[in-house]
Write a structure and sequence with these properties.
Strand order of the largest sheet of chain A: 7-8-9-3-10-11
Distance between the termini of chain B: 17 Å
Radius of gyration of chain A: 24 Å
CATH class of the largest domain in chain A: Alpha Beta
Order of helices and strands of chain B: HHHHHEHEEHHHHEHHH
Number of domains of chain B: 1
CATH architecture of the largest domain in chain A: 3-Layer(aba) Sandwich
CATH architecture of chain B: Orthogonal Bundle
CATH superfamily of the largest domain in chain A: P-loop containing nucleotide triphosphate hydrolases
CATH topology of the largest domain in chain A: Rossmann fold
Largest sheet of chain B: 2 strands, antiparallel
Strand order of the largest sheet of chain B: 1-4
Oligomer: heterodimer
Strand content of chain B: under 5%
């Protein structure tokens, strides 16, 4: 791939990026959120048409930028966002649109099952090709995705975060299998945030940052520290580090003791104080969102104790959590946060309907007052309070969700990835808001994959991996006392946090902070 | 977002797709008034007849507006109305008019609780629950009445439930007005109505906001069955008898009325006033087509065509 550029709207997602992958190598593709990894993979895969640049596979220029052309040229990819159809069997999914036909021209399911079984036995994993995909565990689904990609006899195999839902032993088998593939001359592009894995499997790595190519080098020349340094880089879009520590840490608001959810999290204990922002750091699947859902009563805890303001509480339903002063701004804004077709006003009062209802009827002046005060307080840009939320920009939609939850006047506010898909200006506003809420005496729990945001917003950071708490860090411990330039200080802290997150993945024992 | 530019003619036409039902109603009314005047279309008696013929559809459609707004559907309303005519008639013969009314309400509650329980606790989609209930209710009605009509010999009951009139105004119109008014306020202004719309508009977001969506669905299904039972009571009063065939096939007119009125089949959006106008429009079309002298077969085709046209025009591009 040479000189690839791609813009979405006004945003340049890729700027003149080169990517060269050699036959028989595992090539790691690294970068932070928004670095352009997914975009370049989608260009290679024919999903996105590049604005500039060319793609060649085995010396042949890709005829047309379509998924079919990419597939014909031998490019195969697994998808992070599960591209499987839950009501079909594993074998039917693996060979979807490429089913073998029998003599009469009808689909030969038995043949698909045999071939799928052969792939799984090559991988040495247990997945029943006759099982319905909907009945599989997350890890088995991921293996099915990988089997689907492998079954295409690809020359270039793209694996996007293949290990997030896999057990350690399955990852080992996957690696052995990838080695077999490379020995046959297949080129593999491997995307992962787990640098320990990359160090073990990859031959070379390319690092992207802010849509630009940073470096391509043999993995031997890239120790983990160096990789992180390149990924973090010298940020040009810099989030200004807002003043922290202005708020005094007060009484214990939320105490968790050995809280375990239906799947994740596993045995979590920590205390959140009044006036404090606590961050949850970890990779996809580390159990951060699951922990948030447990506290908010969406997936109630199966064991452990939750205390709020010192009193043990039972949170079995979202309504219980709201009554206890807990509010969750969920990660999936469009489905969990808002009702897009309903108005700003209707969304804003959705969580307080019970409180603003008098003799069965909604108190409209109060609903309007709540909506208007939130629009003003959060400076939501909307044509009017009666416009549908779907007409707002992502950042303003997120403000509506936050406003909806602030309207419940919570003591404890949980924000799960509050800044995904919103512009940098709104991001800073939201982080400032989080600090303001803490200063106003609330306890805030923040989940963010973008580490600079966590570091900017939080007083303490809990590192999670595989559903367990690994380590509680004070934000100040991540600062380098000798560094005076605030931009560099933030980057140094980000590198340290990255290193701790990576350590947590490999740690044998989890501690409870 | 550019603000919508007010078109000449006011808000009704600025959002004409949204208001197609009102525009359509007036248009059809005017067309019939001009073309069918000599056949007595504008005769007050004829107009009141339209009201009498559509009252039961309107009553059921008001409740259906809540069911659809919550993202569910109730196919059993016609059969439940039929069942209620039979239980009411039988109870009146044994226990008098008051007993009859109690039997009607009990029928609605029982069927609604069962529909709601199956849908929200057992987890069968309401489409299937109520499709099955359609057969069960009809079967029970045939069985207990021995497929025969059960006469009602209570003039008082018949007057209140559908047969009577105050001066020239049929009692049925009061029923529509009362239920329509309550339904409109509950859907637009009450906390319950907001929760219904939230449940249908985005169930996950509603659940995350602390709304007990299963409870809301159960309530709208109970509400719908009770409205169907009331429609049955009105059929029974108007025709002074209970028979299982009454209300047969009404579920389609009821759903059509709500959708014509602007209620979304996919939930989250509903209007009771629109639904009542939708029901009246169906009655209007039926009446006009009869006056035109079309045969029943032709009426069916013309009615289907008009409904498709109205719904197609209301779709957003």
């Amino acid at each position: 791939m040479v000189g690839i550029s791609k813009s979405f709207g006004g945003v340049r997602a890729l700027d003149n990026v080169d990517l060269e992958v050699l036959t028989g190598e595992v090539h790691a593709l690294l970068g932070g959120n928004g670095a352009g990894k997914s975009t370049i993979l989608k260009v290679l895969n024919g999903v996105h048409i590049p604005d500039e640049g060319t793609v060649e596979v085995a010396g042949q220029r890709l005829a047309a930028p379509t998924p079919e052309a990419a597939r014909a040229a031998g490019v195969a990819m697994n998808f992070q966002e599960m591209s499987l159809i839950p009501t079909l069997t594993v074998a039917q999914n693996v060979f979807l649109t490429r089913e073998a036909r029998d003599a009469r021209g009808l689909i030969d399911d038995e043949d698909s099952i045999r071939r799928a079984a052969a792939i799984f036995s090559m991988l040495e994993v247990e997945v029943n090709p006759r099982a319905l995909v909907g009945d599989l565990s997350a890890g088995q689904k991921q293996l099915t995705e990988i089997a689907k990609a492998i079954s295409q006899d690809a020359r270039v195999l793209i694996l996007d975060e293949p290990s997030t839902a896999l057990a350690v032993s399955d990852v080992e088998r996957l690696f052995v299998f990838l080695r077999k593939l490379t020995a046959k001359g297949v080129a593999i592009i491997y995307v992962s945030h787990r640098m320990d894995e990359i160090a073990r499997i990859a031959d070379r790595a390319t690092i992207l940052r802010d849509g630009r190519h940073v470096i391509t080098a043999p993995i031997a020349d890239l120790p983990i520290d160096t990789m992180i340094e390149h990924i973090v880089g010298k940020r040009s879009k810099g989030l200004a580090d807002v003043a922290r520590g202005g708020s005094a840490r007060g009484e214990a608001l939320l105490e968790l003791k050995g809280v375990t959810g239906p799947h994740k999290p596993d045995n979590i204990s920590f205390t959140l104080h009044r006036g404090e922002v606590l961050g949850l750091a970890g990779l996809l699947g580390s159990g951060r969102s699951a922990l948030a859902r447990v506290i908010a009563g969406i997936e109630p805890a199966v064991s452990g104790e939750i205390r709020i303001k010192g009193k043990p509480v039972q949170i079995r339903r979202p309504a219980d959590a709201i009554a206890q002063g807990v509010a969750l701004v969920p990660e999936a804004r469009a489905t969990q946060g808002i009702i897009p077709a309903h108005s700003v006003a209707e969304n804003m009062v959705m969580a307080v309907l019970g409180r603003i209802t008098k003799r069965g009827l909604v108190d409209r002046p109060r609903a309007t007052a709540i909506t208007d005060s939130m629009i003003q307080r959060l400076s939501v840009k909307t044509a009017s309070r009666d416009h549908a939320v779907s007409t707002l920009s992502g950042g303003n939609q997120q403000k509506v969700v936050i406003g909806k939850w602030l309207a419940t006047d919570p003591d404890i506010l949980i924000l799960d990835e509050p800044t995904t898909g919103i512009d940098i200006g709104s991001k800073s506003e939201i982080i400032r808001l989080v600090r303001d809420l803490a200063s106003a005496g609330k306890g805030v729990l923040v989940i963010a994959s973008e580490l600079s945001e966590l570091l900017t917003a939080c007083d303490r950071i809990l590192i999670m991996a595989d559903g367990r708490a690994h380590q509680m860090l004070d934000r100040s411990d991540l600062d380098d006392p000798d560094e005076t330039n605030p931009d560099h200080a933030l980057q140094a802290a980000e590198r340290r946090l990255q290193i701790e997150i990576q350590k947590a993945l490999t740690a044998k024992e989890a501690i409870h902070g | 977002m550019a603000k919508p530019i007010p078109a000449p003619g006011g808000a009704l036409f600025a959002n004409w797709r949204q208001n197609i039902i009102y525009i359509g109603f007036v248009t059809i009314f005017l067309v019939f008034a001009l073309t069918l005047n000599d056949k007595g279309f504008l005769n007050p008696n004829n107009l009141l007849n339209i009201v009498r013929q559509t009252a039961m559809i309107a009553v059921m459609a008001i409740a259906m507006t809540f069911v659809l707004s919550a993202g569910e559907i109730d196919l059993s309303v016609g059969a439940v109305a039929g069942l209620a005519t039979v239980t009411v008639a039988m109870a009146i013969n044994v226990a008098g008019p008051f007993g009859g009314v109690c039997a009607g309400i009990a029928t609605g509650l029982a069927v609604g609780m069962f529909n709601g329980w199956l849908t929200t606790r057992v987890g069968i989609p309401s489409f299937l629950t109520t499709l099955a209930m359609m057969g069960i209710a009809k079967g029970v009605a045939m069985w207990i009445s021995d497929t025969a009509a059960v006469p009602i010999l209570s003039p008082g009951y018949s007057w209140v439930f559908g047969g009577g009139s105050v001066g020239p105004i049929p009692v049925l119109l009061f029923w529509i007005a009362a239920l329509g008014g309550v339904g409109h306020i509950v859907l637009r202004r009450s906390g319950f109505g907001r929760r219904v719309l939230a449940t249908g508009g985005g169930e996950t977001a509603a659940r995350y906001s602390g709304i007990d969506t299963a409870n809301i669905k159960l309530k709208v299904l109970v509400f719908s069955s009770c409205a169907a039972a009331l429609a049955g009571m009105l059929y029974a009063g108007r025709l002074q008898s209970g028979r299982f065939q009454l209300g047969e096939g009404d579920e389609l007119s009821v759903i059509a009325a709500a959708v014509l009125g602007g209620t979304s089949l996919f939930g989250g959006k509903g209007t009771v006033i629109g639904t009542i106008v939708g029901a009246m429009m169906i009655g209007l079309i039926n009446n006009g087509l009869i006056l035109f002298g079309l045969e029943f077969s032709q009426q069916l085709i013309a009615r289907g065509g008009i409904i498709i046209l109205a719904v197609a025009l209301s779709q957003k591009r």
